Structure formats: structure tokens, C-alpha cells
Amino acid sequence: MEEIMPGLYRIEVPLPGNPLKAVNSYVIKDKERDLIIDTGMNRPECREALEAGLEELEVERDRTDIFITHVHADHLGLAGEISGSSSRVYFNRPDIELLRRDIWERMGSFAARCGFPVEELRRALERHPGNRYSPSRELTFTFLQEGDLLSTGGYQFKCLETPGHTPGSICLYEPHKKIMVTGDHVLGDITPNISLWSEDANPLQLYMASLDKIFPLEVSRVLPGHRRLFNDLQGRIKELKKHHQLRLAEIQELLGREALNPYQLASRMSWDIEAKSWEEFPITQRWFATGEAMAHLKYMEEKGMLEHEANEKELISFRLA
């Protein structure tokens, strides 16, 4: 646990066995009500670490509110466990769709159409962190949207909607102190996963637009959802956009040889993961890689670079336009 600025603290909550390693939970102390930003997964190791940090900061649950940057379990999972009877849990409306009970069935159905082997699907969904470590009870949310203000501990954060990583991702910008809490929208050491598991969205297009949206803002300190804090927001955004441009070029080269479905394409793309072959990828990483491949394919198709076709089994494949 460390103090970043007066009254603003970071608690590193471990994510055992996860390549992300840990999630950053931020705590802002206030005379009236404290605020926790993101929580970690709903699993014992996360809860123990978060509760130890909250106890050290003398955080009282019944005079504490929680802000969740986006729907993923490593940020939302413990909200129900650590909130008090009078706590407000701040959230966004678009991500509510991803909490519906039938979401896994719908995602699995689309994954099968993307070429994900049916015999592996059940295992992939069962091991998905969102399925295993989400809140154990239904939560009542206080919804925030673009332009809303969240004031606590001498900080006045402005909500910025930054869809892409999830449909409802929100960053918190404090213009006077020039800090921004980015959740998983901008990370300093790793590239945020941009996945697509439906036919009616274009998350990479949204993500690029969201990067452009925050690029002009004056920020001297970035508080991301994972890994280290950093200072150069504009420089990191340029790196992220270059990363995706290289991804698009790689896909274009791969599809120049033959039509591929998203699962086949993902198996041939380059990934920064410790595995000698695609077959050695952990099943959850194969899931995320396929979702990211699909997001790039959708982006390229809507740019007129690709076209897709479906065979008699409705399996989707892509080729150069």
C-alpha cells in the first residue's frame, strides 16, 4: 500500500495465476465518506489483501462508497463483499448488459461461429474469470455518465466515457491536480484487451476514438488499473495506436495467403505470452486472443479492407476484400 498524493492511496490486490498479476485498487480518504476505486476479484486472496489495506487506512465500510471503472471481475468482483449497508456503488449503464445471466450462452454461441472448438468452449467459459470471480450477489448501482462529477477528499473527478475495452468504461479526470484514473483504458506496461463477441459492435473503432478523446487533456500522472503508475499519457496513447496499426498489418499479411476464421487467425498471430505453441496457451488466453482477433477483423471489415462469409454451419471466415 502506498500514498500517491495527499489522501490518495493505492492497494495492490494480487490476481494469482493471472498474467495481469495484480489490480490497482485506489482509496481516497475523506472526512465524510471515503471512496474505493475498483476492488479485485471475488476470491479469498483478493479479499484478504484488499481488507488488510482498508484496515490499515482505517476505512469504515458504512461511510465508504465504491466506484467501478468497468464491468470486468478483477475490478468489480469484490464490490458486494466490501460495501457497507449505506455504500453507494457507482457504475455505468452500458456495462449492465454484460451482467445478464444469458451472456455466457450468447458469447459461447458466437465463439463457436468464430471457429472456437466446441469441445473446448465449455472449459473456456467455466474458467473465464468473469464467470468464476464476479460478485456473489446482485448489486444496486448508482449510475454515472459523461460529465458527472465525483467529489471526495479534496479531489473533484470528472467522468469521461471511454468505450472500447468494455462498452461502458469510464475514466476519472481531475483537471486541477492533473491526474487521471484510467481503469483498463490505458495501461503503462501492457496492452488492454479489446475483444468482440457479437456481430453488432465495433469495439476497436470505439477504443481508438476514446484514445483520441483523452489525448488532448493535460495529465501529469496516470493511475491505471494494473501495473505501474506513469506520467506520459500522450506518449503511451501513441504507442497503443501504433500497436494496433501493427496488428492490422499482421492480419492483412496473414489473410493475404488464405481465408481464415478468427480462431485460426488468432493461432497464427504473434502474442507476448510464455508458450511455445498455440496448443500450450492456457484456455482462457486462447479465448482472449480469439476475441481480440475478432475485434480487429470487424474493424478492418467496416473499413472496407476485408469481407466475411459463412459456410453451411454458419462458421465465419474472413478474406481480403
Provide an overview of this structure.
- By secondary structure, this protein is α/β, with parallel strands linked by helices.
- It is 34% helix and 21% strand.
- A hairpin with a 4-residue loop joins strand 10 and strand 11.
Secondary structure topology:
Blueprint: E1 2-5, E2 8-14, E3 22-28, E4 34-37, H1 44-56, E5 64-67, H2 73-76, H3 79-82, E6 89-91, H4 103-113, H5 118-127, H6 129-132, E7 141-143, E8 149-152, E9 155-161, E10 170-174, E11 179-183, H7 203-214, E12 221-224, H8 233-255, H9 262-268, H10 283-302, E13 306-310, E14 316-320
Parallel strand pairs: 4-5, 5-6, 6-7, 11-12
Antiparallel strand pairs: 1-2, 2-3, 3-4, 8-9, 9-10, 10-11, 13-14
Helix pairs in contact: 4-5, 5-10, 8-10, 9-10
The CATH topology comes to Metallo-beta-lactamase, Chain A
Number of helices: 10
What is the SS-derived class? alpha/beta
Overall spatial form: globular
How many separate structural domains?
1
Named at the architecture level, the CATH assignment is 4-Layer Sandwich
Major sheet: arrangement of strands: 1-2-3-4-5-6-7
Percent strand: 15-25%
Q: Please give the radius of gyration in angstroms.
A: 20 Å
- Number of extended strands: 14
The overall average pLDDT, rounded, is 95
Summarize the structure.
The chain is of the alpha/beta class. It has helices spanning 44-56, 73-76, 79-82, 103-113, 118-127, 129-132, 203-214, 233-255, 262-268, 283-302, and strands at 2-5, 8-14, 22-28, 34-37, 64-67, 89-91, 141-143, 149-152, 155-161, 170-174, 179-183, 221-224, 306-310, 316-320. The strands form three sheets. A seven-stranded mixed β-sheet has the order 1-2-3-4-5-6-7, with helices on one face.
